[in-house]
Design brief:
3 domains; 466 residues; 27 helices; mainly alpha; disordered C terminus
């Protein structure tokens, strides 16, 4: 065999290994905290990193962190990735594109009457800008975006103060996030309304209450973890984990919703499986004005990282039953969810996950049928399917469909992601080295995910990758 052919075969093998490692890292990033995502990216060599940016279904947090901390090559490869949607990449909406807009001529007389002067006489002050944004920002951001095209002098400290006194409407906040190049402190301030709706009703700002939060993630301004850390009041964070009522317009994609549920579950993890703490969370969530991590810290008596010790106890919430919608959301997030009843058919279905069938299509048909007959759940697939890398990739057991979110069984996807979150967090915590060991072991491991994690934790599995 010639030296050239040997070198070509070696290069092809290296490319295959790099692509496979990038594929496995992308699936682990769905469940990792933001610092771990950044650390995993930094450990990849150049070929694997290129495959990660160019070829994989990257989670929203990974794309945002790569754009924020990555290299120019990373940003170029992400811009060419057809699977990266809605992020601040060349040709997509962002401050530079919105700066090219022009205020519609028909709107100018209206603004002139509201200001009491011609907008062309001089730049709008922060007070004038806030007044116009309040008047026109109750729902969609189109008119606020037109207002922001007028010359203006925006003082971010004054904007934050005005928003703290009386929260801006959702359309105005969405427009500011889209078109104004704000500092992280101002973006975080716009994610909080500074008030709690007395009955836990997330619609106090109207049907568009959720849009600024979704837009912040979609535009790459915040990761789901950062959103959960800054969004207030707490019940809105919980409602974002299950945004089922929105059928049209801006809303979560299924992967984004799964990532948001992961971030919310991570914030709720200190509650453990204590039913009393979960009951207290339900009692207080509807009226607590702060963030969800702050509420959990108050309930558990812990201090948040980088903050002062937990403050005094929570005030007694108003009498009455908690909102039914919040109770339903917390039932889906609690760690003591119901499982299908045992039986012979279920045992056979579980055993079949450990025996791959002759073709991938037959395997997918069988798993989908078991899900439809309630013999299996997404959590069962994560725990029992081999190999582990296939269990983490829903395409391998659900297949790709013509559904806009790629999968027409969202319940199974969300249950699988939640179980993977639980297993990976329990085994790996927030240690980047442990996550990297699992990532290196995943491509060549033939067992289940729990078996892989047991080996990664106890050192029983030694991957053949350097």
């Amino acid at each position: 065999m010639s030296t050239r052919r040997t070198r070509a075969m070696a290069t092809a093998e290296e490319d295959r290994d790099s692509r496979l490692l990038a594929w496995c890292v992308a699936h682990l990033m769905r469940h990792a905290p933001d610092p771990v995502v950044t650390a995993l990216t930094g450990r990849l060599d150049a070929p694997a990193r290129a495959y990660l940016c160019r070829d994989q279904w990257l989670p929203a947090a990974a794309v945002t962190l790569l754009l924020r901390h990555g290299t120019a090559t990373d940003r170029t490869l992400l811009a060419r990735n057809p699977r990266v949607l809605g992020r601040p990449l060349p040709g997509l909406p962002g401050p530079a594109r919105y700066a090219a807009r022009r205020t519609p001529p028909a709107l100018l007389p209206v603004l002139r009457a509201e200001l009491g002067r011609d907008p062309g006489e001089g730049p709008l002050t922060t007070g004038e800008l806030v007044t116009l944004l309040r008047r026109h920002g109750a729902r969609r951001p189109r008119v606020p975006l037109d207002v922001l095209t007028l010359p203006h002098d925006l003082d971010e400290e004054a904007l934050r103060s005005a928003h703290a006194r009386q929260p801006l409407p959702p359309g105005a906040r969405e427009a500011l996030l889209l078109a104004a190049e704000l500092t992280p402190a101002t973006r975080a301030a716009l994610l909080t309304t500074g008030r709690a709706d007395g009955d836990g009703d997330a619609d106090a700002d109207g049907p568009a209450w959720y849009r600024p939060a979704v837009r912040a993630v979609r535009a790459g301004l915040a990761t789901p973890g950062e959103l959960v850390a800054h969004l207030a009041p707490a019940h809105r964070t919980l409602r974002l984990a299950r945004l089922d009522g929105v059928r049209h317009g801006l809303r979560w994609t299924l992967p984004e919703q799964a990532e948001t549920r992961t971030a919310v579950s991570r914030a709720l993890r200190p509650l453990g499986d204590d039913p009393r703490l979960w009951a207290e969370l339900l009692r207080h969530a509807g009226t607590f004005p702060g963030t969800l991590p702050d509420l959990v810290a108050r309930l558990t008596g812990r201090a948040l990282p980088g903050s002062t010790p937990a403050g005094p106890g929570l005030p007694e919430p108003p009498a009455g039953a908690p909102p039914a919608a919040l109770a339903e959301i917390l039932d889906g997030l609690a760690p003591f969810a119901a499982r299908p009843p045992d039986g012979v058919e279920r045992e056979l279905a579980l055993a079949s996950l450990a025996v791959p069938m002759e073709s991938a299509e037959e395997d997918i048909r069988w798993v989908r049928d078991c899900l439809d007959r309630s013999l299996l759940t997404g959590a069962d697939v994560i725990r029992h399917k081999v190999p582990a890398c296939w269990a983490l990739d829903e395409d391998q057991w659900l297949g790709e469909s013509g559904h806009p979110d790629r999968h027409d069984r969202p319940g199974a996807v969300l249950a699988a992601r939640a179980e993977a979150d639980r297993l990976l967090t329990a085994a790996l915590g927030e240690d980047p080295r442990a996550w990297w060991r699992a990532a290196r072991a995943l491509p060549g491991f033939a067992g289940t995910l729990p078996e892989l994690l047991a080996g990664a934790v106890h050192g029983d599995w030694v991957p053949d990758r350097p």
